[in-house]
């Protein structure tokens, strides 16, 4: 994508709007940071959802309309197309809200037809998608299970799932619940009221959006407050923010605290210490819904690492790649570093751009990452940005040899130089990936 192409600006600005989930304040901050100038190459593509098609159509209509009244204005407007895009989004907001509410109300009406469906809600700063897959895989040994796909975890996304997938044959609905601000979990519980809730963990993920950890705790525990008061609430007992706060938010729920420090006879191919706690949570849910020990055992054996989440991939020349590129939170990084350290007598390479949205904790979190890596990694590859210097500080402060730190301007540049980074029999861990709105 060439910078001299005026249409490239329009495409890029629409792309950033979508990456920022149509949040205008975040969109403006990203435009300010990037100066609105498209890079030579984008990492992903604009997705032409119905909403985006409407915005594109309205924006082009506005640009063409202005060009009729003022000659040559369309060429200029393409370079600053974020301005007409903002106008269009503001104008379309009432219609957007109306259409969203219509879909959500339709989903509520569908759920009211099937009160027999067992609803499982999963909330947390991290680990939601893995937990969803574990629970769904186990329960599928007995029930017809519908689950939210991939990373879909917003009210509208959940409503669309219900409208298209929930039928009278559905016996269990497993819902991943996302949170960016207070009330987000409550809004989802207004569509689907869980009888079973699972809270996977709380940390500084999305701290920039949430404002404070106290806010994060209160938001995630909306699940406990808005689920069935006599239901089952399964909690990560290893997480300090859960362990020290849950009693303030529960009512009459049955509480199960899971821990990776407890033994379990269940086996899966999941990597990491956290797997024991996740399997215990799946087992607790399965027991509550009447699965036999054999059904739970079979279901657990079918669980595989999710793509891009501590996913082991055998490469050439004996190289093992651990793809953890979708895991972008402090607890996940700590687990990844632990997993990397379990490989003895092999050269260990860690590649990362660091984490995003860690707010005022950015320096502290990334120096801690460096400290952890200093004890495990043989080579650390850092992608240059605003946070990776803190990782280097943590590495150096803990005695890591600076000759074993390599810098690259972009992830693409690092990937292009893999032949010079990787040696036979290496273990290479890719930690997190930044989208274009953070670069």
Model description:
By secondary structure, the protein is α/β, with parallel strands linked by helices. The protein has 3 domains: 6-98, no CATH class; 114-301, 3-Layer(aba) Sandwich (UDP-N-acetylmuramoyl-L-alanine:D-glutamate ligase); 311-431, Mur ligase, C-terminal domain (Protein-Tyrosine Phosphatase, Chain A, Alpha-Beta Complex), CATH 3.90.190.20. It has 19 helices and 12 strands. The protein has helices at residues 6-19, 24-34, 50-69, 73-79, 82-113, 128-139, 155-165, 184-189, 207-210, 213-220, 222-226, 240-243, 274-288, 293-301, 330-341, 362-374, 388-397, 411-416, 418-421; strands at 118-123, 145-147, 172-176, 196-199, 232-236, 254-258, 311-314, 320-324, 348-352, 379-383, 405-408, 427-431. The chain has a 6-stranded parallel β-sheet, sandwiched between helices. The chain has a 6-stranded mixed β-sheet with strand order 7-8-12-9-10-11. β7 (311-314) and β8 form a beta hairpin. α16 packs across α17. The chain starts with 5 loop residues before the first helix and ends in an 8-residue tail after the last strand. The model has no long low-confidence stretch (mean pLDDT 91).
